[in-house]
Specification:
- Chains A, B: GO terms for molecular function: acyl carrier activity; fatty acyl-[ACP] hydrolase activity.
- The structure is a homodimer.
- Helices cover 15% and strands 39% of the residues of chain A.
- Chain A is of the alpha+beta class.
- Chain A has an eleven-stranded antiparallel sheet with strand order 1-2-4-5-6-3-8-11-10-9-7.
């Protein structure tokens, strides 16, 4: 872990064999896992990590994640993830990422939106007032030239797949973990999309938690050329778990 | 990566948040992934890694994996995996592992059996004749006090779950990856097994590859107190993909 400057964290990775898909490229789910880990490392090193917050009975919650890749690294490739805080709002913060190849060229960017909530009442808190607003000291305008998350609406989607939540889906909070939704969304597409093209932009907005035994329906609607809006619902369609967007290119 | 001696490789890890299950312990699937990576690192550093073999049109195939844990490390815990070659037979090699906590105490052991095959004809080759039999130089009798894999037979199993193979299951060889079977087997058990107990011993023997679109049936049969034999079949039960054993304790 080297620091580009005090505000930007940079973390090194290598594409492990079981983290590559059938094309030999890193999977988006594993990249997502790395991004969230980097968020955690970066925040921890600067005094606003989840451990520090938990002591004060607050915690971080991921609200949105957008990843846009020009190229995914291949099996055994080394790559780095840079992360930084772009903005702090009253109830949200924008954290961005740059994914770079070993030779330094940009492979892609990502954006995430986080809320801070009370551990007991699960209600959003004003993060500028928590922990002496320390997070404000690290805001930087390092460039992240991809679109911010958009509002995703589905009008007449089709039911693509159904997944019953299993043991392997559940994290330490008792919820389906944020990364598993990425897999469940991508698994709703025919494998030919990944053969002839690759995921160019992926977007997910988390709405409601889901739990062991829930049945998740994955709904898909076309939204342009090789672009799709996605919604995962539970309780027979009564509640939305998350919405997403996938563009292949 | 430090070496205990020239024959034993030792590799450090940390339990990442998304690699822990709902109890906060490392998942067996992620541990399995680490073990296979360590095998790969160890072999590569000693001149019989998959890259070297591929140049000669041979490759490694995992045949069996057994993991027996006293205790799984928890979220954010550091731990190490040691690996070494216990024996080289004509067509197989036994590679063992010790999993240790940061303070050095043993958390568990694992055993794996590998074959070497020709990349073109997929037939087993005599590994003592490949690459000047270099692997023979690294055999060591470092202790691994857990039972070797046993022959698993099911007499009257019940169908526990069915899983249709998706994009996320498939690795660079176009097969369902070895680690995913661990998840599919564990996901066939009710979550209460993981709440009240933990997996004490897990065994898997790989028989036939499965592919995108295959439907995998997971069959389970009791084999003692909180112990189960498992078989994954495809093609409507016509062919066995793998067999396993899971003991909770």
């Amino acid at each position: 872990m080297t620091e580009i400057n005090d505000r930007i964290g940079s973390y090194g990775f290598m594409v492990e064999p079981f983290h590559a898909d059938f094309t030999g490229r890193l999977t988006l789910a594993v990249l997502g896992n790395h991004l969230l880990n980097c968020a955690s490392f970066h925040a921890k090193d600067r005094g606003f990590g989840i451990g520090t917050l938990n002591q004060q009975h607050y915690t971080w919650v991921l609200s949105r994640l957008v990843v846009e890749m020009e190229e995914m690294p291949s099996e055994y490739d080394k790559f780095t993830v840079e992360t930084w805080v772009e903005a702090v709002y009253r109830l949200f913060t924008d954290r961005n990422y740059r994914i770079a190849a070993a030779d330094g060229r940009t492979l892609g960017y990502a954006r995430s939106v986080w809320a801070m909530i009370g551990m007991d009442d699960r209600k959003p808190v004003e993060m500028t007032k928590v922990n002496d607003g320390r997070i404000m000291d690290y805001v930087t305008d390092y460039p992240c030239p991809i679109d911010k998350p958009a509002r995703i609406k589905l009008a007449a989607p089709r039911l693509a797949t159904t997944h019953r939540v299993t043991y392997s889906d559940i994290d330490i909070n008792g919820h389906v973990n944020s990364i598993r939704y990425i897999e469940h969304i991508l698994d709703a597409f025919d494998i030919s999309y990944f053969k002839d093209t690759a995921v160019k932009r992926f977007e997910i907005a988390y709405v409601t938690e889901s739990y062991y035994g829930d049945t998740l329906d994955v709904w898909i609607e076309e939204a342009g050329d090789k672009a799709f809006n996605v919604e995962i619902k539970k309780d027979g369609g009564k509640s939305t778990v998350c919405r997403g967007h996938v563009s292949f290119g």
